[in-house]
Sequence to fold (374 residues):
Amino acid sequence: MRKLLSLLVLGICGAAAAQSVTFTNAPGRMSDISVRGSSILGDRVGTGGIYLIGTLDGSDAHGKSVTSKGSTNGIMMSDSPTIPGPKFKLSFTQTGPTSVSFYAEVGPVQTTFAGMSMPFDFGKQAVSSFRFNGTRYLLGGVPNPWRQGSAGNYRDIPTPFRVTDAQGNLLGYVGVASTTLPTTWAEVSGGFGTVRVDVTRSSHYGNLHFYNHFGTNNLELGFGSMKKGETAFVEGMIQVVPQIWTYKASTGLFHQVGRADSGGWSASKSDPANKYLCYGPYEDEAPAGDYGAEFHLMLDNVTADNKAIVNLDVYDANSGCVLASQKLTRKQFKKANNYQAFTLAFTAPSKARLEFRTYFLGGAYVREEKVTLK
Fold:
């Protein structure tokens, strides 16, 4: 049996969990998406967020581009007085706790642009992989560029292209994986979970890009080149799906008392009290942020008295902090021999090793099925 790191409560730390997913808008862009309180896109991870951008010559060179970022008048901002910024519309409407709809429009443009697109700039540490509804993709600037499949890792995208500042100083390198068709959905994933982007209606939408950029791992809806007088638009949905972890009591957690029982782990009146029915699993892959830990438990008798039966807590084995706790009495269970979920809201620090502990106080039959972290 794995060693129990601590049987003592060393301190109560952290705060109650906040809303699971939040979206923040700013002039000309979405400036933040946060999952469990931690940003995955935008200002707090050093990226531009979601916005519109155009380039006169297809490069990232200064003096050749326009962007919606920071614009308050519906005209894209230009980094050169010789490039007229086109009109644009960019709106986001929250449709549910973890989703927003979007509408983006550019034009009619007053000059020809070699490229126009809608980037979703995620943090380099936030997302690591991509997926789309296709069968192959094209790597930019490399020999034998075609790759079969509909998914990949950002770290595997070669970065042959240089990016410089206005004085020609090297800023970093970038590479791209692209589809050749107007792909209707794409996903990016990381430790936080997954973001899915669905395109429901469009005009002049040409293809999808995934950039391995020195400052971002991004997803980009490309309008391609736009001739003078043309207009492009795209609308769709952004859905954030936070990661969920499930730990079976009988196989995914450790024990000081009790036995495997009907798919769970139980202790009875005759078992010694003041021992951990379940503890562990020392989860170290959950990113810092706000969570809810659901303990699924049952009693065989919910009316005999109202004694305390178990104490639940979420414990960080690295810091020695109890992040949340709750004592359960018999009458908090609504129905005998039926699993009931009890949720502890907590904030996980960075580099935590999380335990979800059920401390058996004795005097009753209790069975635990699982703990769900979400």
Notes: Residues 1-11 have pLDDT under 50 and may be disordered. The CA atoms of residues 69 and 225 lie 20 Å apart. The longest strand covers residues 193-203. The chain has two domains: 21-242, 245-373.
